[in-house]
Design brief:
Length: about 130
Amino acid sequence: MRYAHEDLAYIADQTGYDCHLCHQPIKFEEYGNHSHAEGWEVDHVRPRSKNGHNGFTNLRAAHAHCNRKKGNKPNRKIRSYFGVKGMPPSTTSRVLKGAGYVLLGIGAIWALNEIFKPKPGVHQPRLNSN
Ligand SMILES: [Zn+2]
């Protein structure tokens, strides 16, 4: 099956450009290159042989070699072989998580500023009264 470039980008985005089986990065430009270590292909989560459909919810990026290893085994089994669970997070959820950390950081800096800011009248330079 051939996919349009934007379909491949969408599929790769769903797992944050990681292989959905081993959670290691795929190299987007190496789509279909089976001899490249980060070469990848589109895996049918539910295989076509078991009536798996061609909709995006059934399509995930997988290294060619991981997909070979998976064969007809369930995803759970091959993921536990790699010591991972579930799907890698999508690009969108990674960005949102990153933004959350940035906001948390800004909040922490603001709080520290509030705590350590000089209190009025305490450390003011004294005016000479002569
Ligand atoms: Zn992989």
